[in-house]
Please model this.
Amino acid sequence: MTKHSLTQPIGIFDSGIGGLTVASAIVKQMPHENIIYFGDTAHLPYGDKSASTIQAYSVKIAHMLLQQQCKMILIACNSASTAAYELIKEYVASKAIVMNVVDPTIQLLRERYAHKKIGLIGTRQTVNSNVYKKKIDDLNHGIQLISRPTNLLAAAIEEFGNNGVTDSLVEEYLSHASFQEVDAILLACTHYPVVKNKIAAFFQHKIDIIDPSITVANAVKTRLEQEKLLNASGEGAKLFYVSDYTESFAAGTKIFFQEDIKLEHYPLWE
Model:
């Protein structure tokens, strides 16, 4: 591993505002860490793109984050975590730690949900990749996974936030008969915690809603501690880049961080 300093930033990227759920959890857990967030708003959502397209975007973003001297790159998007994690690890090599949002979630399921029935909602890319099913089957913990693609939900959250349009989609997607007997619903897209309360209300708060953002933040902290790279002092600067300026992203940053955030425009391709 290339030698890093504690003050180097954590780089976080997603197709849009979804990764802000993870970024805000990281800031709460590690207030002294410097954060660089990249929202690839020009190409959202990633969930309906091919794996090769997501990989091309992800490598370009990883390159930019390496130029910013990031000590860690967190792929805060399930679609990119499933399609591009191994490629990004190879590309980054020893220049930074690379983490994704899938593996910490699998660890949580192993610890808490043995012999349970889990409903998973995510983008088509995440569901069709079968990455969660493969990793859960490898655990051999008797976890039964029922996955449903909820492809329009991330784009609706980007466009409309937490309002009536997303109400209708939540009801439409979660009404599926296969979800009636589950013990928990796994939010396998980092956009979905924005509407977590709607999902809990739909199930009348009778089942667990697994929001991976806190789990991922905990895993990031643990990894930085292991590598002796946790920054325990300083103000914790935040830089936000977008590949295309959108009002919804600007509004999203304000909601998550309770402050006006300056967005830097950084097109992936000129």
